[in-house]
Give the backbone structure.
Amino acid sequence: MENFQYILPEIFISVSIMLFLLVGVFKKNSAILIYNLSNLSLVILLALIINLSSLDTVFLFNNSYLIDNLSNYMKIILVGSGIFVMLTGSKYIQVINLNKIEYPILILSSILGMMIMISSNDLIVFYMGLELQSLALYVLASFNRDNLLSTESGLKYFVLSALSSGLLLYGCSLTYGFSESTNFDQILINSTEFNYGTTFGIVFILVGLAFKISAVPFHMWAPDVYQGSPTSVTLFFAILPKIAALSVFIKFLYTPFANMNDEWQAIIVFISIASMIFGAVAAIGQKNLKRLIAYSSISHMGYALAGLATVSNQGIQSSITYISIYLVMNLAFFSCLFMLKRNEKYYENIEDLSGLSKKHPILSFSLLIVLFSLAGIPPLAGFFAKFYVFLAVIEQSMYFLAIVGLLATVVAAFYYLRIIKIIYFDPEKEEYETSHNLGLKITLAISTIFILAYFIYPSGITEIVSKITMI
Amino acid sequence: MNFPILSSLILLPTIGALFILFTKSSSGKYQSAKYVALFISLANFLLSLYLWYVFDKNSVDFQFVENREWLSGFVNYKVGIDGISILFIILTTFITPICIISVNATITNRLKDFLIAILIMETFMIGVFCSLDLVVFYLFFEAGLIPMFLIIGIWGGERRVYSAFKFFLYTLLGSVLMLVAIISIYWITGTTDVEKLYELGIKAEYQNLLWLAFFSSFAVKTPMWPVHTWLPDAHVEAPTVGSVLLAAILLKMAGYGFIRFSIGLFPLASENFTMLVYILSLIAIIYTSLVALMQEDMKKLIAYSSVAHMGFVTLGIFTMTQQGIEGSIFQMISHGLVSAALFLSVGVVYERHHTRLINKYGGLVSTMPRYAIVFMVFTLGALGLPGTTGFIGEFLILMGAFEKNILVAMIASLGVILGAAYMLWLFKRVVFGEMNNQDLKSMKDLKNFEIITLTALVIPILFFGFYPEPLMNSIEASVENTLNMYNFDLIDNLASKD
């Protein structure tokens, strides 16, 4: 029984989900109440996780569940960004009539699934977590069911994701078959010698994970799902599943398959380079901001994976730093998107930003900062994210990866500049509404200030992350 | 010195920009914003003069060094100056108030944003010239792109979008390779601190590639032929003040970088690539001078002349002689003053006549006599007449070049003649000749603030032209030190080979 105190956060969130479901069923018109309660429960959840984070590594339930520095940090940024995602989207879902009790409950259950994924130390536990989050995400993607694009994106995501889950499961079974265990540490011990079965297992598992993180060549779903889903769900898609998938990536590569880095390193380098280049080039022609940010996230995941390809603690830490800064930039970007509202309608095309800077100087300035930061221009936070990754990459003398990555940033700079051009240089259009809910404003202010002032004390995140060591 | 004087120099303009952010104006004229900007930039200028006064000109060490922990463990925020950087800092703080005074005429919309952009720009420019850590240097060097992109794009001319993009992407592409090189240096030597790197030295086997990576960045920024094409576009489309900042200071970052980093950190590679730099510089001098002769747009002509002048600078730096490098630094300061003045002069007539085409002008001497006089001084300064700063720079560079390679020096001398040709021809067509256009007759002579800005530029051009001693004094020890280190490394390397 003593194990249970360590999974108090998971228990708490499960109980909350069931409780909210009951409340929602028996109390009429309780959507807003449940939304707020869910957000409150996320705050409590965050407090519970932080409370546990002082502990050292703990193995639970016959070594199938692991709480360590990595899982704690990832859960903290996961739940933390979950709170902000809920805060920013609250008004949006009311305006487009999605304010149903299922919405926050689905978000909470997918967060629960992600927490299980992050902490899993066993193939079966990992798969359970993965499916819990995926099932919730399928529904969320098609949540705006009267909208053609939304249903399409839900279906697309379901079909492709199910396929990738199948591949992943096949990889798991191969790994199990050849290494005689489902436990990560046991697999590590049993797979000291090279064998084809485990190698194929790694490839299939990496394919499945690359799909979740939307890395090229398994990115096909991302643009459609990003564009079709309601914007608040897109924001969720852009941040939380990526955190979970990246953390699982780290876990798989550096625990069960740590001995086989010769086999997987080339794969990671390839998908990293492919994502960086493809994301940068494909985003150039986009007209829809959500679609553009989908391509941009593909290329950002390429940079995060570049850190993992280095097989060094420095690299892992740089990837984690990267995703932490990336999520703040995305929060800021989407907060700006939520502010493009006029007459109960949200605008999401690049053209709609035309001349925004004349009437909305503060909003435009935030967008300016976010976009330059996404492009990786110093002294903004996005530059430091890339800097750490390349520091790790060059330490391992992977010059090709570094140079390709940096050249891709120049290509990517073009489409970010194009948005800035439309905001600042083009003739103005109609004004947007200026009254926004407090949560949205706070999120935008905090994230913009974070990006802008990161250079004053850049060691903050690095010092926390430096505790995470896998090798 | 406990007072962080350099950090104050860097931060003061940003603080001013924050103040301006909170100023309000009901009439939309933003008088208070202008006064704040002017006051801050003048205060910064005085501070930099004070810095020059207390600066020890005989010492070869970096002075006023501040070293603070920044990126935990491996990169420190380190700033400090020597005799070379102080001149560029003063140039920056001197040009900025002139820009702010000139804003009156050229910028009508979003004045407040413009002043903020200029002040932020000043912060980054000063930062570049005093950073003593490669990462800090890169940070300031790249950050300058953001305000300049906005200055060209928001307040520029018709093709501003194209020019702004070209400027940004060209420079960014050049710089990313430098970032790879900087990180590589960190892993090779374990530090990015410039002073420590001077002591440690970088192994010969790495130098060539690292030099090329730095070169790719500096060559674009200088700009050297064949990557100079962004400059005419950027200059033509930028507002007058933007052109002034670009020509007077931004281009100097690269020349400064060559002296501080390319020569200082990679002496062996610099020796290997000397011929490459000579050839590119000569092409820049001759070819762009010829191109300048053909221009019909005044700003474009001056832009091409900038490329030619910067060709002299790179040539002088890589002669690796005391005269050559001192001449290059002098030429950079001189070009900073003269090109700023020329762009302001073009701005004066453009604002009245709304065209930059040379053939629309003529005979201005009869309606604008004062303008004709100052414009003449600047023209003569640009072509390097003795008695102006331009002469001293070019003369020293050619002297250095003759010492090393007579053929190179002879070809470069042709550039002086071509320079005289295009500048005098420009002057003749604009100021003398017949006044064909009736509109020109109603053109008013210089206004008060124009007299202030242009005279402020005439004075140093003539003063340092006749009496270059103060500037020379300041750079002499530092240049000598740079060269000593350079020669020492070369001899050391030869000895290790034997």
